[in-house]
Write a structure and sequence with these properties.
about 260 residues, mainly beta, Neuraminidase, 4-stranded antiparallel β-sheet, 2 helices, about 30% strand
């Protein structure tokens, strides 16, 4: 990484799934911008970082998160109110047709996702159906909380964000989430007073399979799932990711069967 290191501040790295593309934030230009560096193989050195000029502005860009196919890049615009934004810090997205193309002019995720408060550090699930991010919007438990927005398919609009609630969010600052590739672990930063000022935490993401909330996963839950077969019922849509894939089908039945006869506290 020596070719990428400068005396400036370089942070918020985002590595592609093949380990060959690294996006990050840097103030080496005197302003927070997004940069990218690449390498031919995982055994090679990183190349000279390049500024994402089509995305960067004087408003400050941070926390890049690229989707697994390399065609969509989410990021945070900071400090100033970038034209088209909802607040001082918003979530934005840029797309491209192929990985050989330049990124498109960014678009704001809109008033459904962004608020007049600070919305920061997006992380997108591998199936691109969920975004987790930090926010100071009303309805939280602390100064910063982690929120999530989902959609049924990649062609749909993002839904109303929901606060993850306890035990993820506390009266302290909880933010900067990162979701694991398989969607089962959420990593995040917290200022809860356990081991210092800022620490890294993790929490497992588990599907809700006790569909009737009677304390055990059994045939009654299977009946509920069958009754909603082929629909987009969110209660029964629990696979393959913990938040489902937009349809109740065999993927959800497999997840439920894995927990059959488990007692749920």
């Amino acid at each position: 990484m020596k070719d990428c290191i400068t005396e400036s501040r370089d942070l918020a790295p985002d590595l592609s799934t093949d380990g060959l593309v690294l996006h990050f934030s840097s103030d080496r230009s005197g302003n927070w911008d997004l940069y990218v560096t690449t390498r031919a193989t995982t055994h090679d050195d990183w190349g000279e970082p390049k500024s994402l000029d089509v995305i960067n502005t004087t408003h400050g860009e941070m926390c890049p998160r690229m989707t697994s196919d390399g065609l969509t890049l989410y990021f945070t615009d900071t400090y100033d109110h970038r034209p088209g934004g909802q607040g001082d810090i918003d979530l934005w997205v840029s797309k491209r047709a192929t990985t050989d193309d330049d990124w498109s002019e960014p678009t704001n995720l809109g008033p459904m996702v962004n608020s007049s408060s600070h919305d920061f550090a997006p992380t997108v699930s591998a199936d691109e159906l969920a975004i987790f991010f930090g926010s100071t919007r009303p309805g939280g438990f602390g100064a910063w909380d982690i929120w999530a927005t989902t959609r049924t398919t990649t062609e749909d609009d993002w839904g109303q964000p929901k606060n993850l609630g306890p035990p993820i969010n506390t009266s302290f600052t909880d933010d900067t989430p990162v979701i694991s590739f398989d969607g089962t672990i959420l990593y995040f930063k917290s200022r809860r007073p356990d081991n210092g000022d800022h620490n890294l935490w993790q929490a497992s993401i588990e599907p809700v399979v006790d569909l009737n909330s009677d304390g055990i996963v059994d045939a009654a839950d299977m009946v509920i799932m069958v009754d909603h077969w082929g629909t987009d019922n969110s209660l029964c849509d629990v696979g393959p990711m913990p938040w489902g894939d937009g349809i109740v089908d065999v993927e959800d039945l497999i997840v439920l069967a894995e927990h059959l006869f488990e007692e749920i506290p």
